[in-house]
Specification:
Distance between the termini: 45 Å
Strand content: under 5%
Order of helices and strands: HHH
Radius of gyration: 17 Å
Largest sheet: none
Helix content: 55-70%
Shape: flat
């Protein structure tokens, strides 16, 4: 039977990967900000979703991955496959 890792063990295992992901995100947002005209992306739905995703990231709870996936998913539409 597998043993459950402790929070410090999980952090130790994933710290560098998490740090890399955060650096990639910040670098991409910096590139967007440097190249965008003021207000150019204020109505862009994708940027709104990214900002909402950052709010999910900064929130508490053990369901952030689920909430983020739902944020970026299309709503289910009955009869979509007809």
């Amino acid at each position: 039977m597998p043993t459950t890792q402790t929070a410090p063990e999980i952090l130790e295992r994933h710290f560098l990967e998490i740090r890399c992901g955060l650096l990639n995100l910040c670098a991409a947002l910096d590139r967007i900000d440097r190249s965008a005209e003021p207000g150019q992306l204020s109505d862009d739905r994708r940027m709104q979703l990214i900002r909402q995703g950052i709010d999910v990231l900064a929130s508490d709870g053990d369901d952030r991955a689920e909430r983020l996936q739902l944020l970026f998913s299309d709503s289910y539409e009955e009869g979509w496959n007809r």
